[in-house]
Automatic annotation (TrEMBL):
Cofactors named for this entry: FAD
UniProt domain FAD/NAD(P)-binding: residue ranges: 3-310
UniProt protein name: FAD-dependent oxidoreductase
Family annotation (PANTHER family): NAD(P)H SULFUR OXIDOREDUCTASE (COA-DEPENDENT), PYRIDINE NUCLEOTIDE-DISULFIDE OXIDOREDUCTASE DOMAIN-CONTAINING
Limits of the Pyridine nucleotide-disulphide oxidoreductase dimerisation domain: 333-435
Entry keywords, A to Z: FAD, Flavoprotein, Oxidoreductase, Redox-active center
Amino acid sequence: MTHLVAVGGSDAGIAAALRARELDPSTDVTVVLADEFPNFSICGIPYWVSGDVATEASLAHRTRGDLEAAGMTVRSSTWASAVDVDRQLLSVTGPAGEEQIAYDELLIGTGAEPVRPAGIPFGKPGIHLLHSMTDAEQVVAALELLPAGSRVAVVGAGYIGLEMTEGLVARGFDTTLIQRGPEVLSTLDPGLGSLVTEEVRRHGATVLTGATVTGITPAGGGQWSVATTSTFGDAAGTFALVVVCVGVRPVTDLAVAAGAQLGQAGAIVVDEQMRTGVPHVWAAGDCVVTHHRLLGTTWLPLGTTAHKQGRVAGENMLGGSRTFAGSVGTQVVKVFDLVAARTGLRHHETAPLDVSPLTRVTVADDHKRYYPGAVPLTISVTGDHTSGRLLGAQIVGERTAEISKRIDTFATALHAGLSVDDVIDLDLSYTPPLGSPWDAVQVAAQGWERAAAAANPAGVSV
């Protein structure tokens, strides 16, 4: 009987364990995790903070009982500290003290940890990171002690920062969002990001863009003074609570100690079958490099990617030969009544490729205008002007407009290596309440082709 050990009880580790048990129910699987939250949805944390998700327990993809019923041994509150590669032993420290767990195959799925900018007094009451379930519990407990209308600052306007801002506004807090970039959501081009910035402001939050936090100091009475600098000068605001969401970095200490190599962004180097190169040691999830179908090897920590990588690892740990098909970086977020999504590459991100990028922004209705409720979608398409190959897309529009469906259309086209012209030819569904004979993604593709033709008056085929 094969004994698999997965370090990390989030997306990659659990996906690997489930796949192994699915393929061979006799496989002995142990999952080691440092906290008490196996298989919880970290992406759902802002919605529990906001109250949209009623209970913390609702964030569990599967309960501990579900995992044990699936045949796993779950070792929670247990830290993995070392790997004896020659003897195939994992050293851990848990409630029973130090011990060693023997394995036939080991998966390292240690994920990522939040970046801790200098000058921020983490660990002090009122200063919070938001990355883990423990973080979320602390934030919720702190918020429940604050009266409605208290001033709260969110540092970082990525996906989690935006979702947290929405949740805090919904709970009645006077919320300020601080963003270093020119607009919120720096994964979008500024022109589309500005639409999201406007949406946040429209719902009553203060948004400081182009602002860098230079220090956070006590202001008395349990308040904190947050100092910022920007092109408009230096400023400071006083807040009862500060939530910091400024990105993550891979956690690799265990893998490095076992002999694994590091690559892009300091993530663990793995091949497309999730091998580390260390005998019987595999890795997957936010701690490893990502095979990108356009860029090659990069680092792009996403939950969807971690699930797929874990599944590949779980199959191959039992002797399979499955490969991770690769990512195109598809992402989507709801911000109040807007949805913003992207897939593939933005114009400047194509620099490593041998292409001539052309980007065109088109505004198209989500469905036929004569049917009530039609709303505009702002769609950016990037393609190779020389070959016509699709390279990326971004969409911003109202939540009712099925943004995720439409970005997934572009993502599928990218995965298949289609051209922009191929997107125009896709046989997409149509009914007046939901779309048009030419769907909005095809209208945007046609807009790109017109721009390409205008930039190529000689009429050379694209």
